[in-house]
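Putative FAD-dependent oxidoreductase structure dump, as promised
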Amino acid sequence: MREQLTNWAGNIVFGTDQVHRPKSVAEVQEVVASAAGRLRVLGSGHSFNRLADTTGALISLADLPRTVEIGPDRTSVRVDGGLRYGDLAAPLSEAGLAVHNLASLPHISVAGAVATATHGSGVRNGNLATAVSGLEIVRADGELVTLTRADADLAGAVVGLGALGVVTALTLDVSPAFDLRQYVYENLPAAALDDALDEILADGYSVSLFTRWTGPGIDQVWLKRHDPMPAGDFHGATLAGGPRHPVPGMPAENCTEQGGVPGPWHARLPHFRMEFTPSSGEELQSEWHVPRQHARAAIAAVAELRERVAAVLQVCEMRTIAADELWLSPNHRRDSLALHFTWIADTEAVLPVVADVERALAPFAARPHWGKIFTTAQADLRAAYPRFGDFAELVRRFDAKGTFRNEWLDGLLG
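structure tokens r here:
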């Protein structure tokens, strides 16, 4: 019987069961150059839409030699295209170095996270793609091309949606390693969002607000800071009495250490530990980015849908991301608030609510996360990015035959 391949959540069944597993960059080039049909890269599977799907073949980089090469000046690290952030953390930390941020999950691949502008949090922190100073890409003709910040194309290629080729290696900015403390506060009053939202979001290296939209306030505030928090409450929220998981009923031992205990960057920036699977995949995810100056209004707009949202929601997380110049980044030229929704695993029930949230956020020029569930028309997606035309031209130069396209990208790129 034909084996069905799915994404991590199981809501997407890929249109092929053919997977190439090259063991070297040379083999990647051979696979690409000899491809008779379409080809997409299979990463860690944490996309929730058909961005990674294909009716041709998939190519996995999981069998490439793991590469973590620290630059001679100790300001960069070169990694292979199949490496996960959790596997980068240990050797980088042992060398006394760090990347500037991490996503909630350390289980995701570096290349896949970068290609979709996945992010961590912090008013001064750009998304993960902003750390990329170089890419090595196998184009549709099998040629290996290297881009650096000296090349104007890099800003277009970094958040590339897998449309330019196979990213076999990336070079990332690194800095000296640092420690953080993580605190969780509970029951932030709704009035605090009106009175001190900007102060709250800036009161840590990374700040996350979690709500189930069952009431007007915020259920949990996760603060990741260099310095200890002062005693007492936090804008009316009280310090949690023990470890917490963002989703009620889920085991807190899956989460990174809390309670203000200092620890290395890679053990505090993610919400979840690398050694645990954060959930069984029984969820769907959506996320929209709005300009940060509209944060209060956007939160209020979703609150108007509280009952609709809460009925199909596990938890909603709100975080900030700094502006950047990457062409297809949702944070392109605007500081952003991201509203992330972890839904129940029921596509039929969730999709109408997704459409409702999109309509509510439309007045704020919301941009969806490329790898999550959304229903935004592709014409509206193109219009949301000032450099989209430049990106489409870049794709044509790298992949004139459309080898790395799929039906979803055909609609987006034309």
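The radius of gyration is 21 Å.
lmk if u need the other ones
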